[in-house]
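Model the whole thing, not chain by chain.
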Amino acid sequence: MLTYMRIAALAAMMPFMIPAEARADKADDTMRVAFGEEILNLDYNNTTKREYIILSDLIDEGLFDYDPETNTYIPSVATGYEYLDPLTIEVKLRDGVIFHDGTGLTAEDVAYTYNWVISEESESAAKGTIERWLDKAVAVDDKTIRFHMLEEYPLAVRDMANRIQIRKAGTYDNDPNAAATSLVGLGPYRVESFEPGKEVVLKAFDGYFAESPKQPVSIGTIVIRSLPDTGTQQAELFSGGIDWMFKVSRDVAESMGAAPNIDHVVSTDLRIGFLVLDAFGHTDPEGPLTNVLVRRAMNHAINRDEIAEFLMGGGAQAVHTACHPAQFGCDQSVAEYDYDPEKAKALLAEAGYPEGFDLELWSYRDKAVAEVVLAKLQAVGINVSLRHGKLASLNEARANRQIQAYFGTWGSGGTPDTAAIARVHFSADTDRNMSNNPKVTDLVLAAEVTGDQEKRKALYSEALSIIADEAYWVPMFSYAQNFLVNSELEFPTYADGLPRLYRANWK
Amino acid sequence: MLKYSLKRLSLAVAVAVILSFVTFLLLNFATDPAQAIAGEDAEPEVVEQIRKTYGFDRPFLVRYAEWAGGVLRGDFGESYYWNKPVAEIVMNRTPVTLLLAFMSISVTIIIALPLGIVAAFRPNTAIDRMALGVAVSAQAIPNFWLGLIMIILFAVTWQIFPVSGDSSLSHFVLPSFVLGASSVPAVMRLTRTGMLDVMESDYIRTARAKGYRGFALVRRHALRNAILPVISVLAVQLGHKFAGSVITETIFAINGIGRLALESILGSDIPTVQMLIFLFAIVFVAMNLLADILNAVLDPRLRIA
Amino acid sequence: MMSDAKADISYIEADAADATPAPLTPGQVLRMRARGHRGLQIGMAILLALLLIALFAPLLAPHDPFAQTLSARMLPPVWSEGGRWEYPFGTDQVGRDYLSRLIYGSRISLLVGFGAATIGMLIGVTLGVLAGFFGGRIDYAVNFVLTAQLALPGLLLAMALVFIIGPSVWVVIGIVGVLHWTYYLVVTRSATMRLREIDFVAAAEAIGASRLQILLREILPNLVPQILVIFTFELGVAILAESALSFLGVGIPPPTPSWGLMIAEGKEVMFFRPWQVVLPGIAIFLLVVAANLAGDGLRDITSPEGRN
């Protein structure tokens, strides 16, 4: 016991025992960042995960860029766009934008990229999103592209900003994965070297266009290291092997942030956490979850504020809607269910379940939150068993309609628009939709093809209030994003939680 | 011997074949590899696209037949996750695991042999009991826990060895200690028993009568004979190190095949899991065979028989 | 860990060969030997203490091991700054009393240990006795199964199975049990073979006892001491296997307090709150050491020749 106490004392003091050795990084102008996910492919057009968004932000440009400060889409390599008619968008390109190999950007490159993504041979991850609305892209002249659309689609500019990165014409002609390991992009950094699964070295690109909204870009070299284990990341940060890590849990962030040479930086995030309930009765047509009183009872059983404050911390907040409050169209005036276990019990009794019922709850991340939810539901008499595992098995079980309820999260790809969460969860052809109310589906899909923003808002309001009244979900909380950063580094954060590494600079 | 070896090896292959079908089946019906590839925020369209690209939308039996056909031609397929031939990934990762296996077996030898010899030399004394205590303790320590404690003490508090990774030899010190320690009890006890047997034998009594005492006796006469059974057990243990490095490699972030196995199972990377199951089964049986052969070659009594 | 059962087989086999089938020793002799065996006493004492802790957990634990207090989460233990006696070992990530969870964790470990060792015993002894008694084709078939089992990557297979079936205490017990029977088989098979040759079996055959009668009345009782020894060892092996599976997240499902799971939960913050990793590890260690000491001791007193 005594030795063990000594170990504990030593380790508790550890952050202070480690000498704040002078880090070489500021001196050689190199920022080393750690990703938990392995980078295996440089081409964002063929990938989906968040780490690839961060990387792509550094090496690529799309036509537009999302500005987190004004919450709008602003021109990037384009100068602007114009609807010639509801089904045709014309985009003009900026002068003086060059690829990392020195060649200038032309309308031909843009048209090629878009047409390739929706082509037969393409295996692009963006294909499904783009082919929904794009018929074809045509280069009218050297600097002008026209996008001919299949249907009216107000989010076309968002997709151009978020989903498609411009490639040189002909890039994919011989190989759909041609840009996976050697990429010629337009972004502020060019790829100096790439070892799949291990390391990407990026150098500031001196030909980067001055008018870019990403300017000013300050740090000369960025090294991205794949360190799948968070313990390794922590140790490396202590010893100066890395300068930056993200997706840190609150407890680790707070403990490590106490060290003299490490800053704990917190930002809000567009990700929300919620329970989806089998209101339709896929698992059991007569099941308790098909009863709205039961679903409302579950909403009353969860203490959202407590989870947000104690488990998430730093800017996380209770959420009562099936979308993040910061998203466009996310009407906050819908029905709210306050934390009231007594009322929950009464509702369960009224619904005919005074003794509660058996419920299998699936989850795939934030085990602590899942355990809190379980305890709260059990406190009102529902006999919950937790099935905490991997995303891939949760999704397979859900696709087979074997899930009564799951603890889901959605980050909306950083898009501050209700569309980015509503379609995925409430359209008719997604198994995430476990309520299958055709009315909600119609409203959500109608909003996607409505150009008028006020009308769009009204459609979402109606959908969201049905979802809230019927308690299809138990919306719970929004996430906070914790970063740990070398104290010599200035790292600004943004409301959407997406780290913009090109904005970092030395103090 | 040759016939026997072939029989054992073909049995291993048969086991691997059955097992591969079962895992293929189970992983297929219990997980969605497309989702594992796409990540948590992937929209359904994206997942659908991946399903088509990888052919997950085709019937299960067709895909198994395709995979099995490939294996017969020596092609274990492409990893869903790494987008590279599985054989290439496994080959790239094997040296690290081999190094770890050999280093840990060395740790086992360095600890277990002297302990066993000393214990046998002074049976039922304090030294013997201490050796036994080491064996009993080593058997009872959860391997993964020992790894974490080593990291806390040697890598973080005292900063003697690196926390994790596999870029230099010093990265292998802690993991090979952890992995090696788990074999100490078996090898130590066997050495001790073997030594005791030999010490009772006639020729040692003769040697004693000739005046050999202490360590000279051990070195000159006893060790060589006592070590025979130990060597074959070491071969078996080496097989275990190779296949049993899953947890150790994961804790110390060593990019070997053990960690690959764990990640592939959790990530539903079926082709990789399949090949590793084959590899582990065959290595294990081969090591057992090697042990048998060593026994036959080294033990004169067996050779005569 | 999981592979150790296999690792030790050759060694146990050698042992089994040495150990003549235990002659029916009078209980007094056993008790006398036990009194002189320090390791056995220590092992049994710890086992008994942990069994009592598990039985009387509700009386011993200061809190409900499932009760969460989010406002009191991640409290340090009492000897650290900020610790309080209310939570002697602090609280975990959702504000549950760590000491209470440690105490209740003994139930899971013992349940899985005894459950899995029993399942393994049923499989292994059945196969071993059948193979040893009947020999021939049955022996050959059992040998095939044994070799097949030995070629399986045990930990990986257990992981895959639990991952796919879905974790629960019973699934873990079943899978760990089904993967740990080779010890029993090897030992009971050779012991049965030797018993067969001994006079009293032949005598029983001569007076016309059926094969089943011989198996149950003459063979099995004589195997009991050896089975008991293996059972005690396998108890430790099964407990370690459970902790490893739970540590990897494919064992006992949360929020059930399992020591392996608790180590996994503490792992993320182990640099700052090492006791969350150290304490459950010590608990597992104590339990398994006790089982091994008891196993060693039982072997020594039931067949004293076995040790040397």
